[in-house]
Amino acid sequence: MKVEDRTIEQIFIYDTTLRDGAQAEGIHFSVGDKIRIARKLDEFGISYIEGGWPSSNPKDSQFFWEAQKIPWRTAKVVAFGSTCRPEVEEPAKDAQLAALLEAATPAVAIFGKSSLSHVREVLRTTPERNLQMIASSIAYLKSHQREVIYDAEHFFDGYKEEPAYALETLRVAAEAGADWIVLCDTNGGSLPTEVGRVTREVAKVIRVPLGIHTHNDGELAVANALAAVEAGATQIQGTINGYGERTGNCNLISVIANLQLKMGKKVIDPERLATLRELSLFVDEVANQRPNPRAPFVGSCAFAHKGGTHVNALRKLLRSYEHINPEAVGNRRRILVGELSGRANIAWKAKELGLEMEDRSPKTKRILEEIKRLEARGYEFEAAEASLELLMRRVLGNYQPFFRLLEYHVSIRSLPVRAYEVCEATVKIEVQGKRRYTVAEGDGPVHALDNALRAALQEAYPQIERIRLTDYKVRIVDPSRGTEASIRVLVESSDGTARWTTVAASTNIVEASWLALVDSIEFYLLRSGGSREMDPEKARD
Amino acid sequence: MKVEDRTIEQIFIYDTTLRDGAQAEGIHFSVGDKIRIARKLDEFGISYIEGGWPSSNPKDSQFFWEAQKIPWRTAKVVAFGSTCRPEVEEPAKDAQLAALLEAATPAVAIFGKSSLSHVREVLRTTPERNLQMIASSIAYLKSHQREVIYDAEHFFDGYKEEPAYALETLRVAAEAGADWIVLCDTNGGSLPTEVGRVTREVAKVIRVPLGIHTHNDGELAVANALAAVEAGATQIQGTINGYGERTGNCNLISVIANLQLKMGKKVIDPERLATLRELSLFVDEVANQRPNPRAPFVGSCAFAHKGGTHVNALRKLLRSYEHINPEAVGNRRRILVGELSGRANIAWKAKELGLEMEDRSPKTKRILEEIKRLEARGYEFEAAEASLELLMRRVLGNYQPFFRLLEYHVSIRSLPVRAYEVCEATVKIEVQGKRRYTVAEGDGPVHALDNALRAALQEAYPQIERIRLTDYKVRIVDPSRGTEASIRVLVESSDGTARWTTVAASTNIVEASWLALVDSIEFYLLRSGGSREMDPEKARD
């Protein structure tokens, strides 16, 4: 996708989940999280992925290093930073701009000041020097063959304060060669009509394609972004699920659906749009955020009907209380009486896994029932396809477990006065007809169990040595019940090449972790052909 | 407040939390809840309070009965229903309209159909009969001296389908004497520019004051309501915190703040507006909903600042990253202390907590060092202000712990073949000079420890019975190390009024949970003055 391909209908989505989204309270991404999200965004068809601010911390630099090795499908990875500092003689001597170039991305975004009071009181420099900083920084980055996105910070506030100066900052950015000029409502306080009017005025004098960056402080981030598009902007910056500092950034989930389904813009392939809900849940899962059931378009309540009148009317006129077809965004209608099942989804999933199964088969029904039973206990299979595959194989009856648990016991003792702390697990299993009884210590109960289980399996399945747990996430399922509530554990594992995720839930965190661990090992043994060593006739179904 | 007092600047707020809000999944109000919320809304200065649909259930009828006994300050209580049924000869014979009159409210709201396809396929009557139903129902209610609010259901969809008919329904409503005509975006799928344009066209031909009723299916409910106000509507219908079917109704909290602080409209007395956050939290509390920390204007994150750049700029220019003064809506600025923080943040935080400390004092340095030491082990304080306060008090040296742990032991045993699972904890502590040794079972190790610790503390601090764990979050800190990695636990607790969050990290999840639990209890004892019972000289510093 080249910038030159832009037409009036195409709107470019610029995702800043990994940078502005990570400013949200309670959100922390590891480098691995960032890579997983970026790959998902690329697969979905996002145009620009802002990965971080390379000079701000080593984690962001590492992300860009790893990103260089990935063959991106459609996305351009973007490094974020600011114009050079006021005291720097020339951009080539600015360490922060140097870090932007070292990130070796096809595009860079830098922000500069649009507001006179910010120039004077925050930057503590002159209006003229600010213009030079903008122009020279952009020109410098352009001279290194980067696509340059110029973010005009506090643009709407600056424009209200002193329109001529705010416009002048854009003019110098355009002249210096910026490929995009992005109008930022940094404090999130603007109204849609203001954003529309100001964007229209900018579009009259600035020939460079315009973008819009909004925040949700007035609960208007999505509306403000759409108002800018109506006024001529062709790039929208935001985050998945609206993560971001304070009340969050513009929610790209709602923006994408509105642009494509309501405003007739070209944003994402329609078949990708049908994975919008999956994308939203995936990012929540990686960010360890509880999905918002009332999220527009993708929330579990978004097409749930409770009122008797509504349900009645729905039976008579399908669209009577639905603004779009839920399937267009991968969601589904939920009616509290006689909930509709997802047989088609299961059949589709089975096909993906190479399991023979039809929509109408009783097996599909049994799988659905098992999923519903486990989900009621706190399981959640959206982000745990390995556990879903094992569940399907178990229900289909052609699955042979690799070992059988007879007993485990965990003991955790802490005597702070003697600085003594020990965690020990014993595991008794039956594997290939033999009983194994092992004991191991660990840093915590799950680690101790993991060590003991591996010791017990080592002889029968030496390949398990390759498995590493790469992530471990725990979430309470019904938070109103405190420590008595069900606890969901997600375990991500890798053998150095593949990665897979398993899930389990229990009121006991150790039990849930154990079940997810066992699934992870079983899945690996299944994939690595472990069953053949055990019983050649039962080899891969 | 009389309808005749309306001027161009006054916007009337119509709350339907008790009716449309109660359609939300997971929201159930008792009659007592409804009365409490209604009184709070009245005290706040809401103009109309829709109490329910009297004929739909006995609970709503009882609400109206009790409402008659209350001396309302400014609000008019409204009973909600629909036009008469198609098959009824005359409105006087319609049971549902009779129930509306029996509710004995000063105002009634009835909805009618604006969309031809709804008339034909849902009501299953003729367009002409629908017009008669609207006219005769309104005339009947007017003849009983009610203020009549006519809700034009599916108005925007109906207008897009057949504008002449949709307008005709409004015309007959106006002629029949409706005091208000409310344009409803029932399916929540309209865009702000559409709502503005259609409302403007309606205002050209309908002389009756207009209202707007929106839903959040496109994440545009607030923007749509504001667009209607800009086009001439003077009543906004919505719910507190945006509760409602599917994705919810228009959030009145954001509407009120935007109208008054941004658009210069007269809505609520400014001193009442400063209780907006309190109103939001009160309704969440009664509805048993967890407050949304990212809620615009009133959420705990709405004025929280994390990025180092932002905090620096804030010190230089107070408004640099804030769209309004947080105090105008009863909220406050929060500086998050985390990886990016420096001394300035700590000093700011200490001041917020009422602890005397200067930027340059050696105490500030010691606190920062302790924060960094713990963060390197996996702690994270930005979302755990209670632990941060305890840390600061501990470092400052004026803190006396409420008890001392000597030993704990947790045992978890699982024998799946016998369906046997047990989790048991023993705790040995020293409290008020005595040793306590208790044992308890639990659903999991943390629950068992919690039970044992509470049993040990019960006698010395009976107030701990009030503490409930309201959330429990676990996150692995360095996922590249798998189960050996450090595990961070966040515990949120409440005593029914206040909420506080504590944090701890360890490679052992049970140890981390234990430490966070202990912090939570210590914080509560500190705040509830527990230390005085223990040692009067060491009372609150």
TrEMBL record, chains A, B:
PANTHER family found in the cross-reference section: (R)-CITRAMALATE SYNTHASE, ALPHA-IPM SYNTHASE/HOMOCITRATE SYNTHASE
Enzyme class: transferase
Gene Ontology terms for molecular function: (R)-citramalate synthase activity; 2-isopropylmalate synthase activity
Stated family: Belongs to the alpha-IPM synthase/homocitrate synthase family.
Domain of life: Bacteria
Any Pfam family matching the protein: LeuA_dimer
Pathway per the UniProt entry: Amino-acid biosynthesis; L-isoleucine biosynthesis; 2-oxobutanoate from pyruvate: step 1/3
Coiled-coil residues: none
InterPro entries the UniProt entry points to: 2-isopropylmalate_synth_dimer, AIPM/Hcit_synth_CS, Aldolase_TIM, Citramal_synthase, LeuA/HCS_post-cat, LeuA_allosteric_dom_sf, PYR_CT
Key words of the record: Acyltransferase, Amino-acid biosynthesis, Branched-chain amino acid biosynthesis, Isoleucine biosynthesis, Transferase
Protein name per the record: Citramalate synthase
Signal peptide annotation: none
Gene from which the chain derives: cimA
Species of origin: Candidatus Methylacidithermus pantelleriae
GO terms (BP aspect): isoleucine biosynthetic process; L-leucine biosynthetic process
SUPFAM superfamilies: 2-isopropylmalate synthase LeuA, allosteric (dimerisation) domain, Aldolase
